[in-house]
């Protein structure tokens, strides 16, 4: 029987993934204010020392968690050029993904909502939201250049409205999942933006 030993890099990546999963679980169960390095280590089956070793501080852990929870929420967009099609696929995929919100995605939405009142989260999520809006602005601007989006549309306004709508739908889905029919809603919202933006 042959066993393969994991490299130090693989062990480090596995430990960091387990710690981030544990942090997400704690956020969902108890909120960000109850999150400590010691509790994360305990939840993941490690010592507090390993959490400090990997992240250094609670703030650094929160920053990594914010990035990890948002990464890959809508797969398959990286290969698409900016434009109306990419924007509509993002909207459709985002709402579709809310139909089965995993622990990491739930943690992201809860952290995002708490960022309004938690000073340690506000800068992290301002940066994450600006990156999201920047992508959306690029899609709208490219759509205008391509002739697919009306030239009188303001890309920044659309970006703010789309982020607010998607995150708001996500929070409603967390609060009352039976009320938000994502399978139907994804088509309704995507069609709304298609009609609102497309050149007549």
Automatic annotation (TrEMBL):
The record's SUPFAM superfamilies line, in alphabetical order, gives:
Homeodomain-like (SSF46689), Tetracyclin repressor-like, C-terminal domain (SSF48498)
- Gene3D superfamilies, per this entry? Tetracycline Repressor, domain 2
Q: Which residues bind DNA?
A: 36-55
Keywords (A to Z) from UniProt: DNA-binding, Repressor, Transcription, Transcription regulation
Enumerate the PROSITE patterns for this protein. Answer: HTH_TETR_2 (PS50977)
Q: Where is the HTH tetR-type domain?
A: 13-73
Give the source's domain of life in one word.
Answer: Bacteria
Q: Which InterPro entries match?
A: BetI_C, Homeodomain-like_sf, HTH-type_TetR-like_transc_reg, HTH_TetR, Tet_transcr_reg_TetR-rel_C_sf
Protein name in UniProt: AcrR family transcriptional regulator
> Which species does this protein come from?
Streptomyces umbrinus
| Lineage per the UniProt record | Bacteria, Bacillati, Actinomycetota, Actinomycetes, Kitasatosporales
């Amino acid at each position: 029987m042959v066993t393969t030993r994991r490299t130090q890099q693989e062990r480090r990546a596995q430990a960091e993934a387990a710690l981030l999963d544990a942090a997400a679980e704690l956020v969902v169960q108890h909120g960000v204010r109850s999150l400590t390095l010691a509790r994360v280590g305990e939840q993941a089956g490690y010592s507090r020392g390993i959490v400090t070793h990997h992240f250094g501080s609670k703030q650094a852990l929160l920053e990594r968690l914010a990035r990890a929870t948002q990464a890959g929420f809508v797969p398959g967009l990286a290969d698409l050029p900016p434009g109306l099609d990419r924007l509509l696929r993002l909207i459709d995929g985002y709402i579709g993904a809310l139909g089965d919100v995993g622990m990491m995605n739930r943690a992201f939405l809860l952290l995002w909502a708490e960022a309004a009142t938690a000073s340690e989260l506000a800068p992290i999520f301002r940066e994450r939201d600006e990156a999201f809006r920047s992508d959306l602005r690029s899609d709208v601007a490219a759509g205008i250049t391509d002739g697919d989006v009306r030239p009188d549309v303001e890309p920044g306004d659309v970006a703010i409205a789309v982020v607010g709508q998607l995150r708001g739908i996500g929070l409603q889905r967390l609060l009352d999942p039976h009320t938000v029919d994502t399978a139907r809603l994804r088509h309704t919202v995507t069609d709304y933006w298609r009609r609102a933006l497309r050149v007549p």
